[in-house]
Amino acid sequence: MASGGGTGVSTSEPTAAKYWLRTLALVYLLFLLVLPVGLIAWRTFGGGIGPFVTALTSPEAVHAFRVTVVVAAWAVGANTAFGVGASLLLVRHQFPCKRLLAALIELPMAVSPVVVGLALTQVYGRFTPIGGWLESRGIQVIFSIPGMVLATVFVSLPLVVSAVVPVLEELGDEQEQAARTLGAGSWQTFSRITLPGIRWALAYGVVLCLARALGEYGAVAVVSGRLVGQTQTLTLFVEERFQNFDQPAAFAAATALALLAIVTLLVTKLLRPKGVNR
């Protein structure tokens, strides 16, 4: 906007708008994020560090930690292998229904985790053709670790692909073609040319996938059966303890999850590919 003298540019309105937007964002985050998380931390450490340690070292909590780590490890491993392969397929090759494949990979972002869990029970439940066939061979999927891994793999499926695909597109394939011209095989080209180029994007996607796997609740709650000491993850432990009025244990586990999320956030900040500002 021109000033009264007609020679300068007034910045009062844009500056005022900037401060209003900044204040609005901070107030929004204060009531939506800072206060709830802060109250959980206050309730956790109000009695000192002792109750926090005691709650997290109980047999049930330790088992929930172990189940959470096992499920997350399998899910991250599966999605890392699939994510790299799918990214190379989408970026380096042309084939019919390519857009359909890309849309299917993004589907978990649009589907509620509860729906995912319910759908898995309809496929792998004991009284379904596939689930019954597997159980007749001693493989129980629903209400056991395999079903929880499947649910976690599904909900975190797109994260590695969405991190690797943009970097692969930016890298191009000139160096890979040059390596093949010089006689390099497919594995040599991937390990010496492609993988070094995408390593930070891959690490970023893996950390995002790990964070999603550690905090998953909805789909896992449906397929796990919520069996204490058997199929209870840390998120299910928080719910079970809270409903049984064991608030110290519930708040301690919730704080542990929040700390894991903060560490993940810091790691993703360090690993975020260049050029990604958000």
In short:
The protein is mostly helical and 278 residues long. The chain contains 13 helices and no strands. It is 76% helix and 0% strand.
* Biggest β-sheet strands, sense, barrel: none
Q: Strand-residue fraction?
A: under 5%
Q: Give me the number of helical elements.
A: 13
Helical content stands at over 70%
Give the total of beta strands.
0
State the separation between the terminal residues, measured CA to CA.
30 Å
Shape: globular
Instruction: Give helix and strand order, one letter per element, not per position.
Output: HHHHHHHHHHHHH
Secondary structure class reads: mainly alpha
Radius of gyration: 24 Å
The parts where pLDDT drops under 50 for at least 5 residues are 1-9
Average pLDDT taken over every residue:
87
Question: What can you tell me about this protein's structure?
Answer:
The protein is an all-alpha fold and 278 residues long. The protein has helices spanning 12-45, 49-56, 59-92, 98-106, 113-124, 129-136, 145-155, 158-171, 174-181, 186-215, 218-224, 234-243, 247-271. Helix 3 runs parallel beside helix 8 (158-171) and helix 5 (113-124) packs parallel to helix 11. The chain starts with 11 loop residues before the first helix and ends in a 7-residue tail after the last helix. Mean pLDDT is 87; it is low at 1-9.
Summary keywords:
278 residues; mainly alpha; 13 helices; globular; single chain; disordered N terminus
